[in-house]
Amino acid sequence: MSDRWQEMAVFVRVAETGSLSRAARELTLSQPSVSRIIGALEARLGTKLLLRTTRSISLTDAGSLYLERARSLLAEVEEAEQAARGVDSLQGVIRLAIPVLYGSRAVIPALSSFLARHPDLRVEMIMSDARQNLITDGVDVAIRLGVGPLDDSTFGARRLAMVERLVVAAPAYLAAHGAPNKPAELARHNCIVQHGLFGRESWRFTHNQTVTFVDVPAKLWINSASGILSAAVAGLGIALATRVMAGEELQTGQLTQVLEAYRLDPAQVHAIFPAGPRPSAKVRAIVEHLAASLATN
Fold first, then answer.
1. Mean per-residue pLDDT for 9-19?
2. In terms of pTM, does the model score above 0.85?
3. 73, burial (CB in 10 Å: exposed 0-12, middle 13-18, buried 19+)
4. What digits encode the pLDDT tens for the residues 48-101?
5. Helix (H, G, I), strand (E, B) or coil at 54
6. Contact at 8 Å (CB) between 287 and 271?
């Protein structure tokens, strides 16, 4: 029976990654071994599960059906084993995807007590502001920041926290260009805009229950929150940030908040699980821990 579980696990990673070699690396097997295991599985089932060419791997109809059931069965086996061990004996690997700046300043500091409680767990962290393909990258849980509806609506999700957003600039920039007193005055300023998370040329402000949209002139486009923060500190313009991300620079005076009377919609922090609405015990445990830790931040 153990051979069948190995066949399932190998097939699932090959199907998810679309690569025999990548699945082999992740499972610490040789590529010929992975190919042999897939061949044996197809022979035993009497049907083709994968269509392989020199450039790509795709699923047959039978492969798609088998993938759905295999994922479910593997998850149930892991759940049963974890139930037998108990919640304080979590084992294995959690692949955690986090944005760079928020991850560094909020998520990573929150992991210390979690890992101390679960010494047999290992966390593999993917730090990037780009949106990864969570399935092909084998991510168990991703932490995402955003305003508005989630992109990955087919995945399971839980909101962990709401973080305040604000408009910031370096004192040197404000000394040279003046500080805007109203959102409309941003039109004459250099604005730093981020692709992705908050990278919108139209910023939404609320003041005295009145909503104002301002089309900001993007002097600089940057694809990472840490880059946005560095550019603002360097005096290159006015930027959006969250208080969590820019807290240190605001405290030290490297950045100053502007337009304080005008409120921006808060950013929502979500945990996304590709496994669906009921992830594994180890994923549920880390999400519960982060929900408690990040909410207090």
1. 86
2. no
3. middle
4. 998 887 777 888 888 888 888 888 788 777 767 766 666 556 778 888 999 999
5. coil
6. yes
Query: Exposure of 221 by Cβ count < 10 A (0-12 exposed, 13-18 middle, 19+ buried)?
Result: middle
Q: Are the beta carbons of 216 and 201 closer than 8 angstroms?
A: yes
Amino acid letter, residue 2 = S
Helix, strand, coil percentages for the chain (3-state, nearest 5)? 45, 25, 30
> Domains in the chain and their CATH numbers?
2-85 (1.10.10.10), 87-159+271-296 (3.40.190.10), 165-265 (3.40.190.290)
Instruction: Report the distance separating Cα 228 and Cα 219, nearest Å.
Output: 12
Count of CB atoms situated within 10 Å of the CB of 138: 21
Percent of the chain residues past pLDDT 90, beyond the cut: 39
**The token pair that represents 37 in the structure block:** 């295991």
Mean residue pLDDT across the chain: 86
> Which of 140, 143, 150 is closest to 275 using CA atoms?
140
Question: What is the predicted pLDDT for the residue at 217?
Answer: 79
Q: What is the mean pLDDT of residues 167-172?
A: 97
Three-state secondary structure of 24-89: HHHCCCCHHHHHHHHHHHHHHHCCCCEEECCCCEEECHHHHHHHHHHHHHHHHHHHHHHHHHCHHH
**Phi/psi class of residue 237: alpha, beta or left (left: φ > 0; alpha: ψ in -120 to 50)?**
left
Q: What is the pLDDT of residue 246?
A: 93
Q: Is there a contact between 132 and 97 (Cβ–Cβ < 8 Å)? A: yes
Separation CA 268–CA 280 (nearest Å): 23
Residue with tokens 């089309």: 215
Name the band, by pLDDT with cuts 50, 70 and 90, for residue 297. low
